[in-house]
UniProtKB/TrEMBL annotation:
UniProt gene name: PLEST007293
Name this protein carries in UniProt: Bifunctional protein FolD 2
Keywords: Hydrolase, Multifunctional enzyme, NADP, One-carbon metabolism, Oxidoreductase
General function of this protein: Catalyzes the oxidation of 5,10-methylenetetrahydrofolate to 5,10-methenyltetrahydrofolate and then the hydrolysis of 5,10-methenyltetrahydrofolate to 10-formyltetrahydrofolate.
Pathway participation: One-carbon metabolism; tetrahydrofolate interconversion
Length: 346
């Protein structure tokens, strides 16, 4: 039915120039001989599963490792790790992420605490919530879901989270320690930590390799570059003001794309054999998809997959790892509390 409508629409058009893609969907485009001059691109060769980094499966393995440790911790110390998740406002994406974080907590045997605040909550009110969780001994990790509404200073809120409970790793003291040789942060931000974990679990060597990080955000690009550098990679960061991003990227053995622009990294940015970690999650209109859109990364997947030796899909790549690392950080925090470890001097 859809096909016949398209066929009619195309046939009725004087110049078929713009309809070549639609015509490709029609079995025999005999009605449009002119379109044969501009055949649609052939369908991409399917990506062999051996090239895919299955973040979903790896995250599942990590969650089961965590569940085992939680059971042991309950036995040995009578302690259950607790994560507090603070959500301000009602952004649909944030609500979804917060729900999956709480679900993941339940799955591994953590307690989770949630505070949902209206979008117009005052900064003072939000600070009080953070401080209450700072003081609550049942809570080992505090996550304030970002982004926050415009009238609230993200900086002020993140600075208020006790660094011992900063499981997001966004506190400047944790970030600062990450940037310094000879220092260890209490927590490493979850998304870049998940990227490195994927590389390590896939046995991708990092030391001595060239890495390119695309994007310089506080929560992904910058910490990802620092983590790679700590593992002795030679790291180049490219960003919106870099004049020759494609050339720099095409020299890298490892690419971490976190620029937040859908499919910006094209196939020819990828050195043959490189490993590609795609952090992006972008909605792209797709009338054939159930919801009218589908998720794509910051990397143009088919083009990059044709050249990469390993690549993460979106969804099912870095996303699930972010949550697994959040659980890992919370477990680590609970372990420190159980052992009565003091925070390292800073
Ligand atoms: N304080 C704070 N900490 C965060 O860690 C934080 C945040 N704020 N704000 C938003 C971003 C985003 N984020 C994701 C977590 C899981 C998936 C995830 O599980 N994605 C799945 C499903 C994707 C989907 O279906 O939507 C996947 O990629 O396969 C994605 C994104 C955490 N963030």
């Amino acid at each position: 039915m859809a096909f016949s409508c398209q066929r009619q629409a195309a046939a009725g058009r004087a110049a078929p120039r713009t309809s070549s893609r639609r015509v490709a969907a029609v079995p025999r485009p005999v009605v449009l001989a002119a379109a044969a001059a501009a055949p649609a691109a052939p369908a991409p060769t399917p990506v062999p599963p051996s090239k895919l980094i299955d973040g979903k499966a790896i995250a599942e393995t990590i969650r089961s490792e965590i569940a085992t440790e939680v059971a042991a911790m309950k036995q040995q110390y009578g302690l259950t790790p607790g994560l507090a998740v603070v959500l301000v406002g009602s952004r649909k994406d944030s609500e979804t992420y917060v729900r999956s974080k709480k679900k993941a907590c339940a799955e591994v045997g953590f307690d989770s605490y949630g505070t949902d605040l209206p979008a117009d909550v005052s900064e003072e009110e939000l600070l009080k919530v953070v401080e209450a969780y700072n003081a609550d001994p049942r809570v080992h990790g505090i996550l304030v879901q970002l982004p926050l509404p415009k009238h609230i200073s993200e900086k002020r809120i993140l600075d208020a989270i006790s660094i011992e409970k900063d499981v997001d790793g966004f506190h400047p003291l944790n970030m600062g320690c990450l940037a310094m040789r000879g220092r260890e942060p209490l927590f490493v931000p979850c998304t870049p930590k998940g990227c490195i974990e994927l590389l390590e679990r896939m046995n991708v060597p990092i030391a001595g390799r060239k890495a390119c990080v695309i994007g310089r955000s506080n929560i992904v690009g910058m910490p990802a570059a620092l983590l790679l550098q700590r593992r002795d990679a030679t790291v180049t960061m490219v960003h919106s003001k870099t004049p020759d991003a494609a050339r720099i990227c095409s020299e890298a053995d490892i690419v971490i794309a976190a620029c937040g622009v859908a499919e910006m990294v094209k196939g020819d940015w990828i050195k043959p054999g490189a490993v590609v970690i795609d952090v992006g999650i972008n909605a792209k209109d797709d009338p054939t998809a159930k919801k009218g859109y589908r998720l794509v990364g910051d990397v143009e997947f088919d083009g990059a997959a044709a050249r990469a030796s390993l690549i993460t899909p979106v969804p099912g790549g870095v996303g699930p790892m972010t949550i697994a690392m959040l659980l890992q950080n919370t477990l680590e925090s609970a372990r420190r509390a159980a052992k009565g470890e003091a925070a390292p001097a800073h």
